[in-house]
Amino acid sequence: MKTRIGILGLGGVGGYFGGLLAKAYFESDIIEIIFIARGETQKAIAKNGLKIIADTNEIIVFPSLVSNNPDEIGKLDYLICATKTYDIETSFESIINCITPNTIILPLYNGVDATERIQILFPENIVLQGCVYIVSMIESPGIIKKIGLYEKLFFGSKNAPASKLNELQSIFENANIESYLVENIEETVWEKFVFISALASATSYLNQNIGGILNHPENKAVYISLLNEITAVAFAKGLALPNDIVAQTIIKLEKTPKDATSSMHRDLLAGRNTEVVSLTEYVVKAGQKYGVATPMYKMILDKLRRDQA
Questions:
Q1: Which of 121, 156, 183 is the last residue of a domain?
Q2: Where is the Ketopantoate reductase C-terminal domain (predicted)?
Q3: 3 state SS of 74
Q4: Cα-based distances in Å from 55 to 21, 51, 114
Q5: Per-10-residue mean pLDDT for the chain, 309 residues long?
Q6: Overall number of domains in the chain
Q7: What pTM was computed for the model?
């Protein structure tokens, strides 16, 4: 029996890492990679494959199957989810029959509440925690563009069998994915959340890319204020983040391409729905829960709500 891995959400994250898996296991006798897609994306990949454009090369990959039909997809052993956070619940509707109680689900979202939300939908399943660091986006249906060399995937679980975690890690490693199976996965996910939440909120509020944040003192001050507020919330929650998490996060940003921006900022500019609830509002509500003031986050949340009204 082949190990069957579904990729739900073929945007910058799911498309890129799913593409590496499809490349590694093309016509494999032991692993089957299924892209779960519909509409123009499904048509483009079925006809031309998924193209991944990087700084120095580009590849075209074909999964074992690209479909949104649960009868075609069948039962899944693993499901890697990378849709937008506002689509978490609805994204499972068409494939609910493909998920058995033994299906292991790995969420790769920008927020920190995905595992909890998915666990409510599938209480019998093992739902891992995970996050990625990468700058990538959809250039057009079936085409993913990746910027820069930085790409890392972290995952783990407090209750999943070690055999399953090690199996998934081996699957990633054999696909040349820089992945890390970590014990303190909640802290790791929150370290990423500190990075992406502050960046998404700052770039969207200031209408600036990363260079525009780092190279202008007044913009950088806004960003640092956000970092201080979200880390205060994390510490109040009881998370064991590094004491120098703010400095570490700034260094991470300085290593990111300066002409890049957050996916939330890109969505805002394109007039699309944004992840403001998961990336900005969540921090304000968590601050209220743990008695931590978040005035910069609150000001930005109010402005983004007005802009999207």
A1: 183
A2: 184-305
A3: coil
A4: 19, 13, 31
A5: 96 97 96 97 97 93 97 98 94 96 96 95 97 94 92 95 97 97 96 96 97 97 98 97 96 92 94 95 98 98 88
A6: 2
A7: 0.93
